[in-house]
């Protein structure tokens, strides 16, 4: 059956018995149809016409003219010459290339796009690929990624011999991916090698079903179809009619209509309708503008058993403590202002996901959770099990944060004790702190509840890291992904939140100790310590606050401060007037410098481009953001830093009264009356 879509390239839908047949037919359709009959006009009654491949009600064609961008006559070409898709560009459209995708974008900001989030999309493709590798191996299918060779999972402790028991630096020994491929080929019980392979761009009958709930231009979905193997279908949904039409155009422009389907639906309603066990998606990706809270309830129901849920949050002002009451209304947790706010934001969204999943006897297992630039990104698997849901209360914790010195303590909501084969659940006891902070005498803030368990599955992260480092040409941000994931594998898994070295120093008003010396002091004291990907100066450690302040007291003894200037009510006065119990040793240890730091990996990237922060919301009305508005925004940058001190500099600015015809100063006016400048102002 041949389907022709309005204004777009033909969408070919045929039954197939093997993936190669579909790929062959698809390639024929996009090579000018030289081996097929010319397409019929839209008014032919035997042809089914739909609206740009979008999942909406069919609309009748408005005219019988040939479709835009389609040449009904086969172009003359040699058999060895392949022609790219010939989707015509509308007036004002441009082509943006990212990864293997070439996306059509309108000139105005009618559809949201932020090039800085290329790292987000690259990381998502890498994670979904490894998830597909694991899932498809259980189904007897081997995925094939271009440019990938047999490799061993990256081990950051390769250069280290044996782990010192006092360092806390784990030497992670993980089965190599080459061994996993061998196991997959032979089977768990020694079976034969599976005959089915899945490559990128091909439709796999037993593959994964992917939903991008808020697709905008469809860039992420197109990249899934072009770069992730083992997929059965990709649904790119957006509530905007213009966005849905653009998704369909981009799917045909990239030749992935056999995998990608555009949908114009409310994302929540679409997921609610797919709650059935046989209808659920294997992968759901939510990347909204702002908070994903309205979509979380539907998402935890629509993802399949053991499926992957990918969520992005860009409302960091709310999650970082600027509006704790708003954070509670959206995520069921109170955020507080603290130096560890970025990791706390990750734990808030995990708490919200797990709480919503528990309502339906489901629970989450985090695979990778990262704080990047101006947003956070979490990848979790969703499982079903009434017995496991009972553990969720003991996984959540409240945070007691001192407003004076920044010391914090965690209080679990529930308690889980094991007595032989029996598990007993009870309420937790507390609080872990007194009415005032024992170190500085100030009060505590109460935040949370937050997720108190590990943020990452280290074995899974190492597989993703190995795939990216072994095939660096696959992603444009491969270096940054390698640095980020390397730090993730080094983080202490069982230590929530962190301190920052500069905040510890500013609290006692002393100079900041070098990072390696402070880490060495904690290692000498027998505690574990690691860095954090969420903050450059972060210190994750299992040492209690008392030990940290003892180390700072010892450092202050060699770098004294003027105590006569300290207020008696200040935290520094209380902390420094207490004698240290621990005598810290600041001799630098070799294991104090982590491998990611030794190898000079790109861990914290500088600003990728000017004005790189969150972009303005897409204008659904079609007006977009004008170029004049962008110019005025750029002109207003740094206006406070470059203040005018001389009145003659005002001549470079146009006179507003002159533009309105009301200026009476004439040539004596301190502003410019140049018509060209006033025209630019308009």
From TrEMBL:
Positions of the C3H1-type domain: 649-676
Protein name, UniProt field: tRNA (guanine(26)-N(2))-dimethyltransferase
Region annotation Disordered: where it falls in the sequence: 36-86, 603-645
Superkingdom: Eukaryota
Protein family (similarity comment): Belongs to the class I-like SAM-binding methyltransferase superfamily. Trm1 family.
Reaction equations catalysed: guanosine(26) in tRNA + 2 S-adenosyl-L-methionine = N(2)-dimethylguanosine(26) in tRNA + 2 S-adenosyl-L-homocysteine + 2 H(+)
PROSITE patterns with a match to the protein in the record: SAM_MT_TRM1, ZF_C3H1
EC class of the enzyme, as a word: transferase
InterPro entries listed in its UniProt record: SAM-dependent_MTases_sf (IPR029063), Trm1 (IPR002905), tRNA_met_Trm1_C (IPR042296), Znf_CCCH (IPR000571)
GO cellular component: nucleus
One Gene Ontology MF term: zinc ion binding
A single GO BP: tRNA N2-guanine methylation
Gene designation: LOC120018124
Organism name: Salvelinus namaycush (Lake trout)
UniProt xrefs under PANTHER family: N 2 ,N 2 -DIMETHYLGUANOSINE TRNA METHYLTRANSFERASE, TRNA (GUANINE(26)-N(2))-DIMETHYLTRANSFERASE
UniProt keywords, alphabetically: Metal-binding, Methyltransferase, RNA-binding, S-adenosyl-L-methionine, Transferase, tRNA processing, tRNA-binding, Zinc, Zinc-finger
C3H1-type ZnF: 649-676
SUPFAM superfamilies membership: S-adenosyl-L-methionine-dependent methyltransferases (SSF53335)
Database matches in SMART domains: ZnF_C3H1
The enzyme's E.C. designation: 2.1.1.216
């Amino acid at each position: 059956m041949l389907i022709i879509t309005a204004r777009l390239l033909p969408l070919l839908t045929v039954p197939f018995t093997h993936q190669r047949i579909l790929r062959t037919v698809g390639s024929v359709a996009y090579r000018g149809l030289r081996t097929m009959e010319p397409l019929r006009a839209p008014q032919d009654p035997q042809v089914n016409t739909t609206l740009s491949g979008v999942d909406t009600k069919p609309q009748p064609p408005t005219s019988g003219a040939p479709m835009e961008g389609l040449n009904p006559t086969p172009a003359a070409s040699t058999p060895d010459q392949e022609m790219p898709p010939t989707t015509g560009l509308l007036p004002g459209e441009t082509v943006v290339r990212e990864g293997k995708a070439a996306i059509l974008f309108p000139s105005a900001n009618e559809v949201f796009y932020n090039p800085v989030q290329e790292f987000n999309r690259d990381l998502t493709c890498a994670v979904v690929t490894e998830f597909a590798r694991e899932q498809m191996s259980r189904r007897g299918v081997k995925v094939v990624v271009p440019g990938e060779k047999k490799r061993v999972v990256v081990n950051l402790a390769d250069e280290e011999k044996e782990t010192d028991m006092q360092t806390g630096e784990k030497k992670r020994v993980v089965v190599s991916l080459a061994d996993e491929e061998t196991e997959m080929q032979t089977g768990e019980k020694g079976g034969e090698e599976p005959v089915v392979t899945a490559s990128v761009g091909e439709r796999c009958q037993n593959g994964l079903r992917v939903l991008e709930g808020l697709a905008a231009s469809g860039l992420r979905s197109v990249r899934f179809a072009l770069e992730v193997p083992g997929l059965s279908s990709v649904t790119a949904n957006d509530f905007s009619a213009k966005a849905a039409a653009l998704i369909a155009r981009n799917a045909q422009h990239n030749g992935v209509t056999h995998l990608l389907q555009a949908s114009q639906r409310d994302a929540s309603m679409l997921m609610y309708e797919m709650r059935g066990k046989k209808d659920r998606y294997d992968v759901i990706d939510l990347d909204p503008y702002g908070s994903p809270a309205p979509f979380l309830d539907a998402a935890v129901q629509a993802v399949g058993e053991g499926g992957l849920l990918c969520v992005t949050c860009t409302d960091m002002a709310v999650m970082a403590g600027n509006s704790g009451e708003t954070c509670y209304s959206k995520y069921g947790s109170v955020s507080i202002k603290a130096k560890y706010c970025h990791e706390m934001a990750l734990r808030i969204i995990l708490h919200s996901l797990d709480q919503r999943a528990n309502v339906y006897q489901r629970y989450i297992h985090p695979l990778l959770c990262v704080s990047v630039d101006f947003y956070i990104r979490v990848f979790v698997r969703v499982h079903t099990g009434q017995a496991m849901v009972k553990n969720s209360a003991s996984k959540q914790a409240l945070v007691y944060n001192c407003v004076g010195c920044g010391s914090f303590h965690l209080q679990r909501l529930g308690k889980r004790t094991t007595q032989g084969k029996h598990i007993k659940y009870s309420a937790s006891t507390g609080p872990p702190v007194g009415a005032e902070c024992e170190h500085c005498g100030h009060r505590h803030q109460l935040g949370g509840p937050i997720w108190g368990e590990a943020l990452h599955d280290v074995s899974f992260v190492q597989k993703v890291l190995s795939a990216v480092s072994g095939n660096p040409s696959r992603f444009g941000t491969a270096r940054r992904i390698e640095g980020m994931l390397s730090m993730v594998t080094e983080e202490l898994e069982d230590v929530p939140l962190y301190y920052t070295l500069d905040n510890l120093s500013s609290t006692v008003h002393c100079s900041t100790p070098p990072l390696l010396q402070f880490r060495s002091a904690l290692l000498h004291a027998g505690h574990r310590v690691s860095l954090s990907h969420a903050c450059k100066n972060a210190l994750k450690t299992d040492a209690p606050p008392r030990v940290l302040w003892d180390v700072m007291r010892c450092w202050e003894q060699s770098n004294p401060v003027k105590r006569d200037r300290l207020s008696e009510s200040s935290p520094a006065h209380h902390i420094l007037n207490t004698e240290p119990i621990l005598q810290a040793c600041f001799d630098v240890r070799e294991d104090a410098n982590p491998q990611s730091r030794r190898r000079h990996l790109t861990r914290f990237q500088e600003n990728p481009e000017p004005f790189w922060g969150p972009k303005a919301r897409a204008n659904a009305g079609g007006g977009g953001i004008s170029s004049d508005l962008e110019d005025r925004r750029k002109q207003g940058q740094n206006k406070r830093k470059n203040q005018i001190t001389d009145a003659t500099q005002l001549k470079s600015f146009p006179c507003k009264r002159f533009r309105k015809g009301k200026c009476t100063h004439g040539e004596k006016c301190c502003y410019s009356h140049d018509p060209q400048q006033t025209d630019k102002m308009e």
